Amino acid sequence: MTKMYRFPVMFILILLLIFPALSEGQSIAGPDVKLVNNDIFVSFSMNLEEKKVKELQQGMDKELRFYIDLFRVWRVWPDEFILGKSYAVSLKSDQIKKEYVAKTDDGSVVVRKRFKSLESMLEGTLSASDFRLTNARELDPGNYFVRITVESKIRKLPPVIGYFLVFMSENEFKVRKDSAFFLIEAGR
């Protein structure tokens, strides 16, 4: 009888080790989309769970990648990816100096900022206000939506382990949220 229960128990243990914890504590507020002078602006903010905030306070570095993607809605076909922008945010805390450093990299410009408190660093780096996505004149008429995806990378594993454990996730968490549909009219 005990041999019969070994396989399910081992299977569950292996699954728990392979897949990272569910990202229930992380959430995205928004995204809010505005059309101003034919430009599409997106605003959103990310909330980290308490465990991740404590890890930052204790000196563990975090690297977050933000993806802002524009999709066109189709009735019969799957939604069409139109364009996307991304940027990376690296968060570091120095307990000795009582200093917090955030580095934002969008591929062309790297911005490094220093903060005096963890709360001000999280507030200043995990939100975007009026992020310009594109001009609506470049788009065909139709319904569109914006998808925000935020993922956190696990600390880098040695390359040899990555070759043998190809099924292991590289993300600590991954959260995404879609905006409400908005209409782009012809002749804008």
SSE order and pairing:
Blueprint: H1 2-18, E1 27-36, E2 39-47, H2 50-57, E3 62-72, E4 80-94, E5 99-105, E6 110-115, H3 118-125, E7 127-135, E8 142-153, H4 159-164, E9 171-178, E10 182-184
Antiparallel strand pairs: 1-2, 2-7, 3-4, 3-8, 4-5, 5-6, 8-9, 8-10
Report the strand count.
Answer: 10
Secondary-structure element order, as H and E? Answer: HEEHEEEEHEEHEE
Task: Profile the largest sheet.
Answer: 7 strands, antiparallel
Structural class: alpha+beta
Note the total helix count.
Answer: 4
Cα end-to-end separation? 72 Å
Q: What sort of overall outline do the alpha carbons produce when their principal axes are compared? A: globular
Mean pLDDT comes to: 80
Percent strand equals: over 45%
**Rg on CA atoms, Å:** 20 Å
Low-confidence stretches: 19-23
Kindly state the percentage of residues in helix.
10-25%
Oligomer: single chain
Describe the protein.
- With about 190 residues, the chain is α+β, with helices and mostly antiparallel strands.
- About 20% of the residues lie in helices and about 50% in strands.
- The chain contains 4 helices and 10 strands.
- The chain has helices spanning about 1-20, 50-55, 120-125, 160-165; strands at about 25-35, 40-45, 60-70, 80-95, 100-105, 110-115, 125-135, 140-155, 170-180, 180-185.
- The strands form 2 sheets. Strands 3, 4, 5, 6, 8, 9 and 10 form a 7-stranded antiparallel β-sheet that branches. It has a 3-stranded antiparallel β-sheet with strand order 1-2-7.
- A hairpin with a 7-residue loop joins strand 3 and strand 4 (about 80-95).
- The longest helix has 17 residues, at about 1-20.
- The N and C termini lie far apart (about 70 Å).
- The relative contact order is 0.21.
- Mean pLDDT is about 80; it is low at about 20-25.
